[in-house]
Write a structure and sequence with these properties.
This protein is an alpha/beta fold. It folds into two domains: about 55 residues, no CATH class; about 190 residues, Vaccinia Virus protein VP39 (Rossmann fold), CATH 3.40.50. About 45% of the residues lie in helices and about 15% in strands. It has ten helices and six strands. It has a six-stranded mixed sheet. It is globular and about 70 Å long. The N terminus is likely disordered. The site of one 2-acetamido-2-deoxy-beta-D-glucopyranose has 10 residues, from helix 5, strand 5 and helix 10. One of its GO terms (molecular function) is methyltransferase activity. Keywords: Membrane, Transmembrane, Transmembrane helix. InterPro entries: CGR2/3 (IPR044689), SAM-dependent_MTases_sf (IPR029063).
Length: about 260
């Protein structure tokens, strides 16, 4: 994506069609050196803008904004303060399940009174040092969520899942969703894209083996009924109130479910 942006900014510079360049060099085409300088300046401005926008905290946020698609894992990162408002003390032991889980777990660990773990649904070959360290300590695990999770019942107060379920067929979802609810004691939060949404490269991991299938609200509700999961209306309400207060609108569907007891 980065290179696509650079290319579009180079074309007008080379042809001298940009008003700016025309003004500075009315007769001659700009030298290649000037083009390169402008190119670098443009790139710096874009990068600076993105990092300013995201607070420079998570590179996953920057990546997602660059390619213009939606990643619900980036949404989790943005919505953590609201989840804290909705869940309060239930944020004490959080499991995040989804791609880029290392960045979410790192962010959660910075919250006061929150312990965090992560499940990365597919093998990572580009994990950074921090991520490898967390995997080494067992804080983050790679686990295929089509199969039972390697945790005891109610191991976590809250389980948050983003982007991971969109890749599973109903046959697997029938087992995976109750399995996610099994390891939670207070709640299960599921973030999923809206149908027709463009996925960001972060979310569209080819390793999932199939493209994301974004399901409608009614589809999800039917699945929750089939798997005997109920919405936690109190949590939903608290979350929506907190979101309204900050005028935050999520680009993902968010479901607040009660755990299976
Ligand atoms: C999922 O489980 C429900 C309830 O047991 C069943 O009715 C439905 O056919 C299952 N769906 C699939 C795709 O296995
Ligand atoms: C619903 O969520 C709230 C947090 O907003 C939590 O305190 C409560 O225990 C949950 N209720 C159930 C039945 O899981």
């Amino acid at each position: 994506m980065m290179s696509r942006r650079l290319n579009t900014s180079r074309r007008p510079a080379e042809s001298g069609a940009t008003p700016f360049i025309g003004a500075f060099h009315p007769k001659s085409r700009p030298s290649p050196m000037l083009s390169i300088l402008l190119l670098i300046l443009g790139a710096l401005l874009i990068v600076g803008y993105i990092f300013k926008g995201s607070g420079g905290r998570t590179d996953v946020a920057a990546l997602s904004r660059l390619d213009g698609g939606v990643s619900c894992t980036v949404e989790v990162s943005r919505l953590i303060p609201l989840l804290k408002k909705a869940y309060g003390d239930s944020m004490r032991k959080v499991l995040h399940v989804g791609p880029e889980t290392c960045s979410i777990v790192s962010q959660l660990l910075k919250e006061e009174g929150t312990e965090a773990w992560g499940v990365e649904p597919y093998e990572l070959d580009d994990a950074d040092g921090n991520c490898r360290n967390m995997m080494h300590k067992g804080i983050v695990r790679v686990a295929d969520i089509k199969f039972p999770l390697p945790y005891r019942p109610k191991s976590f107060s809250l389980v948050i899942v983003s982007d991971a379920l969109d890749y599973l067929s109903p046959k697997y979802l029938n087992k995976t969703i109750p399995e996610l609810a099994r390891v939670a004691s207070d709640g299960l939060v599921i973030l999923s894209g809206y149908p027709g949404q463009q996925r960001s490269k972060v979310a569209e991991v080819s390793k999932f083996g199939r493209p994301a299938k974004l399901r409608s609200l009614t589809w999800w509700i039917r699945l929750f009924i089939q798997t005997s999961l109920e919405e936690n209306e109190t949590a939903t309400k608290k979350f929506q109130q907190a979101a309204a207060k900050k005028s935050l609108e999520s680009s993902c569907q968010i479901f607040h479910l009660k755990p299976l007891h």
